[in-house]
Amino acid sequence: MPELVDKRDVPLTASSRAAAEAFDSVVDDWLRFGRNTGDLLNSAAEADPDMAMTHCLQGYFFHIMGSAKLLPRARSSLQRAEAGAHGVSQREKMHVAALSAWCHGDLHRARDLLEQVLIEHPRDVLALKLVHFIHFYLGDVAQQRDSIARVMDAWDDTVPGYGYVLGMRAFGLEEAGEYETAEALGREAVERNADDIWAGHAVAHVFEMQGRHREGIDWIAANEAGWRNANNFAYHVWWHKALYHLALEEIEAVIDLYDRRIRADRSDDYLDISNAASLLLRLEIRGHPVGDRWDELADKAAARRHEHVLPFIDAHFMMPLAAKGMHTEAEDMLVSMRAWAAAHDDTVSPIMREVGIPLAEAVYAFGTGDYGAAVDLLLPIRYAVQRIGGSHAQRDIFQKILIEAALRDLRAPLARALLVERREARPWSPAAWKDYARVLDAVGDAAGAADARATADALLAA
Amino acid sequence: MPVDRRGLAVTASGAAGVELLDATVHAYLSNDPSTGELLGKLVLEAPEMPMAHCLRGFLLNLAGRARDLGRARESLAEADRLLAGANQRERRHIEALRAWCDGNLARATAMFEEILIDHPRDVLAFRLAHYLHFFVGAIVEMRDSAARVLSCWDESVPGYGYVLGCRAFGLEETGDYTAAEAFGRRAVELNPDDVWAGHAVCHVLEMQGRPREGIEWVDRHENVWAERNAFTNHVWWHRCLYYLELEEHDAVLDQYDRYVWRGPSDDNLDITNAASLLLRLDMLGVGVGARWHQIARIVAETRLDERTRPFNDAHFIMPLAMTGRRTESDALLASMRGHADAHGDEAMTIVPTLRDIAVPLADAVRAYADGDYARTVDTIMPIRYRLLPLGGSWAQRDVFARLLIESARRSGRTRLARALMAERTALKPNSGPTWKAYAGLLEQLGDTPGAAAARERAERLLAA
Question: What pTM does this model have?
Fold first, then answer.
């Protein structure tokens, strides 16, 4: 089997130049969250049916889709990758080993193997983006930031895909709280590749975390044309846009985005459901009715309630079940989560046990009006929620639940303390000031409440 | 019922005792060397005050020596004796003290935070929660803990500045340097003796690579801070770090002798300051003469069997290893492992950190001293992102980051060293020595133009 190189000069074992190029095309489409990744992968497999890296890539994709139903197919891909792995380079063998670790639920080992690949091959953009995702799944923000920092000096303008690496760097910096550099790099990435939706999304996060809602709306409007060929990740960017509108109390715009964009195809993809559930719950917490929108989500979440791929996903699947009062399904899901955690000993199982299960229980308690239980479940784990992965913006729903539950449970001193903390962290947030006013009213500080409300109004009018 | 300076009800037989409590708490907040004396007086003159015994118990626990822990338990017993007459806030303090004496730092912290929900002006609970968050590396909790009480404080409340100082440090450790610096400077304006706030500003200047400003900041406050307790030695340590960044190694050694390690000390922080600094110098190839031996002797005499904080333990190994005291370093490691095993079933907060982080770190330090650099790398790599629970600051834990990179370089794992140093240039873009070391690695890998660019950047930074 001839050893070729990919378009970034990384050694690649393939039967022909054409096969190597077909492989490059799959990676390229994946970098831009394109819609043709699956078709391109099939073409690559046709060009060289025995190529280890193609099967490996397919296995990775099955994992990334976050569906338990695809796990047997990931294992089949692994078998084919292993069968093709004789005589391939050390790098490719390490990829196959990383896929194997992932298939066994050992995300830590998969992560370490991919980081090792990057020490020797800092231009292995596949390893780079995969490990970027794994750090993200595990809430390891410092690692996500540093992972890209370690390879940056091997990349420049002349290396194909450079802009996409900048986009990942931007996101890593953003989650680590370095907003200024994150924004600059994210913007540069989007200038280089208008279709770099991940970079565009990193900038959207900066706006969210800094409370720059109008800029966020404009940013997405200005760049959406570049994302017309993006896959369902685009729905997540619409979700970000809806968050800005929600912060500005432009509820019609939120609902419109929800109906026309975020839930346009009503899929049962985990990210699509998570976007939608999180947004509906945020609307309800702010007192806005959402009509029958929970219904279809609840059906899809109920159908997936035994999967347990990531605690982040489960905690979101619980939202529609709780909102609809589907006690049988919700309780069945909790039983299933506990059984899964007890039966597994891998990277995710301790996170499921220590964080995912109490989190899902809290979501359920909140949805069924047991606010005291929601508070008691969330308080001990609130600083551990980062372990379920996702972004700060996504996990913020659990802080919102905690605060709202404390308010509704009339635990005024606690709610006051939590809201002071929030107001300090988000002085630009009208909702934080309004909730702060609510709690000041509750403790009889009418003057303070009026001041806080005036601050909220001034922010909304700005 | 009498109230303290901030309006909190205190169970006491009279106003004089409460005034003494206030004075002792203030001395503690301002790192006043007379704190111990005041505390002794307080317990003597107000034996019926639950908070007097609590305060004594807390401060003994904070001192962090095994011999103090038994005395802390005596204070707990005294406080317990007064439990029935104590108010709810004081009962929670007693519970916090009990948890702390049991090594259950998580529960002690939770008790302090519970107190603060109802009594956001309980400055003692606040400061102790701040420290305990710091001890276990809970930096987000440390930041938020101060944020939650801030609205209940203003300049009219005695001790306000000290709260700002804690707010500053919490923000600094979570990377919000601009806000941290503003809070820290304001706190020092309000109370020039607030060495903790001054130290928060030191951290900002360290993390942002502003060594000249750092030296100037410490120099300017030196006279006031020199009057404070031994914590001030840690501020002198920070000044040494600035000189290190400027590659003024003679100044580092001079400051070490005149400020950081003026003579034999068996204080935990003095030992960790000194060991950390000497190891940094050693990694840079600077000879430190007989300095290791002085610390090694004290550690060997006093610390082989005493386990209080994993952070300290990971430093205690340094002088033993660097002076080749094999028997003693074996004994220290055995004691660390033994302590973790003996308390593995208890809710002792430090045990997992001791077992999973401090033991491998100590092993890695010893391997470095033995010249077994590959072992150092292999031991630190799997835990490098899990050092936070060790506690301490980013600046303090940085000695282990340096140890990893230098060991990767010395073991010939140049590509790994390059990657790690590239990461470091991104974290410390203003650090001359970092760019210089990075240039050396690029040179070794044959990237001459990259090395030249990095070297030029290093020289520009060092000349600035």
Answer: 0.96
